[in-house]
Amino acid sequence: ALKQAEEFRAAVHVLLEWLSEAEQTLRFRGALPDDAEALQSLINLHMEFMRKVEEKRVAVNTATGLGDAILAVCHPDCVTTIKHWNTIIRARFEEVLTWAKQHQQRLEAAHAELVANADLLEELLAWIQGAETALIQRDQDPIPQMIEQVKALITEHQSFMEEMTRKQPDVDKLTKTYKRKTEPDKSRANRKSLSQAPPVPIVLLSQAETKNPRINQLSARWQQVWLLALERQRKLNDALDRLEELKEFANFDFDVWRKKYMRWMNHKKSRVMDFFRRIDKDQDGKITRQEFIDGILASKFPTTRLEMTAVADIFDRDGDGYIDYYEFVAALHPNKDAYRPTTDADKIEDEVTRQVAQCKCAKRFQVEQIGENKYRFGDSQQLRLVRILRSTVMVRVGGDRKS
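User: That's the sequence. What structure does it adopt?
Assistant: Structure tokens below.
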């Protein structure tokens, strides 16, 4: 009985020591590598560990069998102790075996994922190479001058953009996976402090965030292809807008444009002179062609820059690059205009402006409005009273009136 007891005790102690070492080995495996060869080496080492675990099953069965034999003949006071040690070695062995199988599954899953990611990485790099070459080649080809052809190119490019959008999750998956694996482990103390800190915004994967050069290449080239695709989309849309403007401009009629503008001004209850003065920042009575074009476009009047270039040519009668107030009003109010001023004061102002616009001198004839129907004319700047007499604008000079 003593010999059996010592043999059982020795077997249990040997098993407990081995189980402790096995648990330590499984507990401190660390992070899995992102290299296929290193991961395969870990799998081989773990397979050897599993073989040793299975070999220890014989020792566990031998020890528990010896305990069962002792239980059959031992004193009742010893039953609890023997059953306790039998239960301990069986439970701990099953725990180590289960833990080892779980780690084996983790290694196999990681290896399968690594292989799949490597295949996906090569597939994406090959697709990016073809896409980049195709985009560069398309940019070198001249954009056609037919609207339907440009629309066909836009539709084709839209399909390409949709394909890129479908592949974006695969790229995110690869870059985030490798980024996650290369992040250093934090201590428990640091984890507590970090849990109270504000979240760090996600940034694009950079060269410093992963040691895998293929992932760095994927990230850089993917961004490059996106930029090329967006630039191609912008060029096609600009070309389509320009062709549609040219198509509309082919039937451009200034008189139609002028009447539409005057209706728009009347609808807004705005005066032409107020609009001109708003554009004329320095109040010198004239604005540049560009200021005129930008001012009309900024006012939200429904027109295009191409139309405004043609309109500016019409407004700038003398071709000096400037549009003064008199040219502005004269172009908008020709003699037979349904939108002529209605009040006497406005009619007088309109007629005075039109008459002064006919002056082609280097120094334009000076007219200054002092008040309603009161103007100063010429170098003398003598005050004159202006009235309408039988539909004719008359300027009172002394006791006479002159039209």
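The CA atoms of residues 122 and 214 lie 9 Å apart.
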